[in-house]
Design goal:
Layout lengths: L6 E4 L8 E7 L3 H8 E3 L11 E9 L2 E11 L10 E7 L2 H13 L3 E2 L4 H8 L5 H12 L3 H11 L2 H25 L10 H30 L1 E6 L6 H9 L17 E7 L2 E7 L9 H15 L3 E7 L6 H10 L6 E6 L16 E4 L8 H12 L14 H22 L4 H18 L6 H9 L6
Parallel strand pairs: 1-7, 8-10, 8-11, 11-12, 12-13
Antiparallel strand pairs: 1-2, 2-6, 3-4, 4-5, 5-6, 9-10
Bound molecules: guanosine-5'-diphosphate and magnesium ion.
Length: 455
């Protein structure tokens, strides 16, 4: 990426609003802004770091609006470069003209994530902090916000850096043993090395656990509602969402396409998939729906298997139970229509978790929510601990764990340390990549393209 140019973009959502904010970063940010924005009293060049001034915007030599400019000076700004934030009135036309004036004065349009990418490249942020900014924007619950907020402030960075430093120290000691096997060159013994490695692995296992929490709270659990037709799957979806998300009728086979929505269940975010009732059918459209339901089941992280307790269990129910026995994720038996319950005993004991519920009256909903929260956040959320936020970080962590375990095994079996060293080096590289100490351009680009323009 070219860091020599100065980029500008609208940071507030595009559309009519009270105020628009346009951001600019780069060497010439202040000089370019000075051509478009004239403060009432002094020139923009004289404005100090993190100071705001009132003034007028010009396009083609004519004043077009009035507003505020805030100046940030390198290296203390968000990006580490000179930056200006311009606030004008939030009209689509006026914002567009201010931007156009900036482009004509020498700025180029910023791409998604350019500001944060520059902050990362200029060493103002680590990769996990940059990723956390995206998660803060996307947070849908206070719990999600608290987890990403802590990472944004460097909670994960601090942990990874501290593990990195310890491991580096270990590697240096290992090299000293290799180079001077007969001399007492280091302050740590092989025994202490094993202990330290065990300690680092303990910290890594805790980080591994933390991904379960961030997955449940921030990403959301892919939850598939399944069952034969007419048992109340769509009614259950609607009970969760609190609105008529899916069509409910007494006609079997109403739902064909998968109907999706996200809801909070305590601090657990559920990404609900309401599916077509699984049954043998000659209806072409319904058949496709049943296929989609089966595919959704294979990708589920939680299954709500719904049964109709107003009717006796039949062959279709039994086939579903058989089908679900092959699934590895948790399955909760949802024994529905408790308001008309005559046959609920038919459905008891089919799964390790079950609940009697009425999607019609809402009875039993809180028990179902409790089961889900216990499954995914059993010990509650410890906000003091660092959290792994995404699959990219997680895969580097797993690489660290596997290499560090190999190294420990090598030391324990009494093999020479140069063998352990190869694994230790790989474990170190995994930590470096986890938080972007060393990371390829491709990965950086991939991460930042997911960002909004102007962030
Ligand atoms: N009495 C009673 N009827 C229900 C309940 N849940 C759903 N129903 C009814 O069962 C029928 C099928 O519901 P629906 O949600 O469309 O089932 P789906 O085919 O599994 O999605 C509708 O007539 C619903 O009103 C319940 O808890 N109690
Ligand atoms: Mg339905």
């Amino acid at each position: 990426m070219n860091l020599n140019n100065t980029v500008a973009a609208q940071s507030t959502p595009v559309g009519r609003g009270a105020i628009s904010m346009i951001r600019m970063t780069g060497d010439d940010a202040i000089a370019i802004a000075a051509k478009v924005f004239k403060p009432k009293k002094k020139s923009l060049d004289e404005v100090g770091h993190a100071k705001a001034v009132y003034g007028e915007f010009f396009y083609g030599g004519e004043p077009i609006d009035d507003g505020v400019a805030t100046v940030y000076r390198a290296p203390r700004s968000y990006t580490g470069e000179n930056m200006v934030e311009l606030c004008c009135h939030g009209g689509v036309l006026v914002t567009g003209l201010v931007l156009k004036a900036l482009y004509e004065a020498g700025a180029v349009p910023a791409e998604g994530g350019d500001f944060t990418k520059r902050a990362f490249i200029n060493g103002k942020l680590r990769l996990s902090q940059a990723e956390a900014i995206m998660d803060i924007i996307d947070a849908e619950s206070e719990a999600a916000l608290r987890i990403s907020g802590a990472s944004g402030r460097g909670r994960l960075t601090d942990e990874v850096q501290s593990m990195y430093d310890s491991l580096k120290h270990l590697i240096a000691a290992t090299y000293a043993y290799i180079d001077y096997p007969d001399e007492d060159m280091t302050d740590i013994t092989v025994e202490q090395m094993k202990e330290e490695l065990q300690n680092l692995l303990g910290r890594a296992y805790r980080l591994k656990e933390s991904r379960k929490t961030s997955y449940a709270v921030c990403d959301g659990v892919r939850t598939v509602i399944c069952g034969k037709p007419n048992v109340g799957k769509s009614s259950l979806l609607n009970l969760f969402t609190g609105k008529e998300t899916a069509i409910v009728t007494e006609i079997p086979g109403t739902t064909r396409d998968i109907v999706k929505d996200s809801v909070m269940c305590g601090d657990v975010k559920l990404r609900l998939y309401d599916t077509a009732g699984i049954r043998d059918t000659d209806d072409t459209v319904e058949k496709i729906g049943v296929e989609r339901a089966k595919t959704a089941l294979s990708e589920a992280k939680l299954v709500l298997a719904v049964f109709d307790s107003s009717r006796p269990k039949d062959k279709e129910d039994e086939e579903l139970v058989k089908e679900l026995s092959k699934i590895t994720c948790p399955v909760i038996g949802v024994i529905n229509k408790s308001d008309e319950n005559r046959f609920s005993s038919d459905y008891e004991g089919l799964f390790s978790h079950e609940v009697k519920i009425s999607a019609k009256t809402g009875e039993g909903k809180s028990e179902l929510e409790k089961i889900i929260v216990d499954l995914f956040l059993s010990g509650g959320i410890n906000y003091d601990l660092p959290h792994i936020a995404n699959d990219r970080q997680y895969s580097e962590l797993l690489r660290f764990i596997s290499s560090a375990e190999n190294a420990l095994q090598t030391l324990k079996s009494g093999q020479t340390q140069d063998i352990a060293c190869l694994d230790l080096e790989d474990a170190l590289a995994a930590l470096a990549e986890l938080d972007g100490l060393e990371v390829t351009d491709d990965i950086v680009n991939e991460i930042f393209t997911k960002f909004c323009v102007g962030k």
